C-alpha cells in the first residue's frame, strides 16, 4: 500500500518490520520498570516524531515538491485556519487547568503569540494573510463554512484531549512543536520556490521559526520533570502519538477531498468556488 | 471531481447547480417566516437524506456492487463497531437530558435494542458476530485498537453533539433512521449475493429492519411536535445534516485508508494482519 510514497521513507522496507514499528505499543508490564532518563525520554519522543509526525504525509510531500494546485493550497489554508483558530482556545484550556503561577506565566505566551493584541499581529492574523495570498477572502476563511467535517472532528478531538485527559497528557500533546521547526524551515523555502504568488503571506511561518522551539523547550522540560514514573512517561509518549494522529488525520481528509479521489463531501469548500 | 461516481446520481449534471444543492443553507431572514407544516418539514428532512445520507457514498456503492475485498469489509466492520459501541452511550446521554418520563420510556428501547440483556442479544453482539463472519476475532474488534483515528473523531463528535447542542437537535440528529430501512434492505440482499461467506452474520441488519422504522417514527413525531418555530425547525434540519456529515466522514476515512489511495495511518488496522 502506497509503498512508493515518501511517508514510508526511512522505515524498514519489509512490511512486517514496518508494522512492528508503527503498531501502537501496549502498556505492558515491562514498561512499568525503571523510569527513562531524560535523554531516553527525549529519544522516545523524537522517535514518535520520526514515525508519526505529519512531515511524512503525502499531502505535505506534494506541497514541498511544488505539486499542489492553487485550489489545493486554498483548501489547505482554509482547513488549517480552523486548526489555528482553536489553538489559543486549546492553550487557554491548559492555562485554566494549572494551579502553578509560573507555569501559567510561561504558557500564556502561546496565547499572545497566536492572538496578538496591543498593536502586534498574532499567528491567527498571519494565517489570514496567508489565506488571502492564496486567493481566499478573510471573511470566507473566518466563517469556517466549507471546512471539512473531518477537520472539525480532528481539531475538536484535540480540545477534548487537553480538556479531559490528565494535565500531563495535555501538556505533552503540545510536544509536536519539537519537530515543527525543521518542517517549517523546509516549507518556507519550498513555498517561495514553487508558489511565488504565496511569498507575501509567509510571515506566519517565519514567526513560528523562533516561537515554536521556545515553546517546545519549555514543554519538554516541564514534561521531563513531571513525568516521574515510567507509566507517566509512557502516558506522555502516548499523548504525543495521539496529537500526531490528529495532525495526520487532517491531512488525510484534505488529500481525500482535494487530491485523490478528490471527493469533497456535501457542503464542503470547492476550489472553483473561491 | 468524481463525476462518474454514483453519489452524484440523481443530482443535476451541471456542477453549479449541484453546488447550490449541496451548499449549507444559511439561516437567513427568509427562513424565519412561518413554520413549515408537518408535511413540509418531513419533505425537508427527506431532502437532506436524499442529498447527504451515506447511501450515496462510494464505499457503500462498492459494497453493494460486490467490489469490496474481504480485507476492506473487515476494516469496515472493525471501524463501524466503534460507532455501534457508542450508540447506547449516545442514547443514554439523550435519556439523561429528558425530564419527560414518557419520552424516556420510549427512548430506552433503543438502549435495550443495542445492548440486549435478560437473555436477549442486542445490536452490539450481532455486530460482533458480523465481524467474526468477516474473519475478525471479537477481541480485536472490542479492543478498538486499529480503529482509524478519523473514525473516533467522527463518532466522538456525535456524542459531543447530543451532549452539548440543544435537546431538540440531539433528538433530531437521530433522524437518519428515517432513511436506514431502505439502505439496509438493499444491503442485506447485496451482502448475501456478493459475499456469501458473510451470510451467517447478517442478523444485525434483519433486526434493524423493524427497529429502525419504529425509532424513526417516534423521533419524527417528537421533533414535529417540539420544533414549533421556523427557527427550531431549521435547527432540526441542520442537526440532521450534521449527523449525515458524521456518517459520511466515517466512510471517507475508510475509503481513503483501505480503497484509494489505501493509506492507513500509522497504527491503524491493516487487513493482512487479521
Structure description:
With 274 residues, chain A is mostly helical. Helix content of chain A is 67%, strand content 0%. Chain A has helices spanning 15-22, 38-52, 58-64, 70-97, 101-115, 123-133, 138-143, 149-164, 167-172, 177-194, 203-226, 230-258. The A-B interface holds A 1-2, 5, 7, 15, 19, 22-24, 51-52, 58, 145, 148-150, 152-154, 156-157, 160, 241, 244-246, 248-249, 252-253, 255-257, 260-267, 270, 272-273 and B 1-2, 5, 7, 15, 19, 22-24, 51-52, 58, 145, 148-150, 152-154, 156-157, 160, 241-242, 244-246, 248-249, 252-253, 255-257, 260-267, 270, 272-273.
SSE inventory with pairings:
The structure is a homodimer of 274-residue chains.
Chain A (H helix, E strand, L loop, with lengths): L14 H8 L15 H15 L5 H7 L5 H28 L3 H15 L7 H11 L4 H6 L5 H16 L2 H6 L4 H18 L8 H24 L3 H29 L16
Helix pairs in contact in A: 2-12, 4-5, 4-6, 4-8, 4-12, 6-11, 8-12, 10-11
Descriptive labels:
homodimer; 274 residues; mainly alpha; Heme Oxygenase, Chain A; 67% helix; globular; disordered N terminus
Summarize the structure.
The structure is a homodimer of 274-residue chains. By secondary structure, chain A is mostly helical.
Mean pLDDT of chain A: 90
Please tell me what the overall shape of chain A is. Answer: globular
Chain oligomer state: homodimer
**CATH architecture designation of chain A:** Up-down Bundle
CATH class of chain A: Mainly Alpha
Low-confidence parts of chain A lasting 5 or more residues at pLDDT below 50?
A: 1-23
Structural class of chain A: mainly alpha
Please name the two chains that share the biggest interface, counting residues whose Cβ lies under 8 Å from a Cβ on the partner chain.
A-B, 44 and 45 residues
Whole-angstrom Rg of chain A: 19 Å
Order of helices and strands of chain A: HHHHHHHHHHHH
Domain count of chain A, please report it.
Answer: 1
Instruction: Please give the share of residues in helix of chain A.
Output: 55-70%
CATH topology of chain A: Heme Oxygenase, Chain A
Number of helices of chain A: 12
Query: What fraction of the residues of chain A are assigned to beta strands by DSSP?
Result: under 5%
End-to-end span of chain A in angstroms?
A: 34 Å
Number of strands of chain A: 0
**Strand count, sense and closure of the main sheet of chain A?**
none
Amino acid at each position: 500500500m502506497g509503498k512508493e510514497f515518501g511517508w514510508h521513507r526511512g522505515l524498514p522496507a519489509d512490511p512486517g518490520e514496518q508494522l512492528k514499528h508503527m503498531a501502537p505499543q501496549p502498556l505492558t508490564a515491562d514498561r512499568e520498570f525503571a523510569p527513562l532518563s531524560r535523554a531516553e525520554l527525549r529519544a522516545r519522543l523524537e522517535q514518535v516524531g520520526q514515525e508519526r509526525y505529519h512531515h511524512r504525509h503525502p499531502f505535505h510531500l506534494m506541497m514541498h515538491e511544488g505539486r499542489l494546485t492553487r485550489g489545493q493550497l486554498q483548501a489547505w489554508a482554509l482547513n488549517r485556519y480552523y486548526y489555528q483558530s482553536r489553538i489559543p482556545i486549546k492553550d487557554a484550556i491548559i492555562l485554566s487547568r494549572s494551579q502553578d503561577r509560573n507555569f501559567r506565566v510561561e504558557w500564556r505566551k502561546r496565547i499572545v503569540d497566536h492572538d496578538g493584541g496591543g498593536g502586534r499581529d498574532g499567528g491567527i492574523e498571519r494565517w489570514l494573510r496567508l489565506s488571502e495570498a492564496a486567493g481566499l477572502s478573510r471573511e470566507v476563511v473566518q466563517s469556517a463554512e466549507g471546512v471539512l467535517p473531518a477537520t472539525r472532528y480532528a481539531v475538536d478531538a484535540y480540545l477534548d484531549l487537553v480538556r479531559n485527559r490528565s494535565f500531563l497528557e495535555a501538556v505533552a500533546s503540545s510536544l509536536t512543536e519539537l519537530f515543527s521547526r525543521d518542517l517549517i524551515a523546509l516549507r518556507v523555502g519550498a513555498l517561495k520556490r514553487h508558489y511565488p504568488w504565496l511569498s507575501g503571506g509567509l510571515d506566519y511561518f517565519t514567526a513560528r521559526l523562533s516561537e515554536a522551539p521556545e515553546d517546545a523547550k519549555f514543554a519538554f522540560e516541564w514534561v521531563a520533570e513531571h513525568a516521574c514514573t515510567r507509566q507517566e512517561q509512557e502516558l506522555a509518549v502516548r499523548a504525543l502519538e495521539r496529537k500526531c494522529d490528529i495532525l495526520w488525520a487532517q491531512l488525510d481528509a484534505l488529500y481525500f477531498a482535494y487530491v485523490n479521489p478528490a471527493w469533497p463531501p456535501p457542503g464542503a469548500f470547492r476550489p472553483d468556488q473561491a
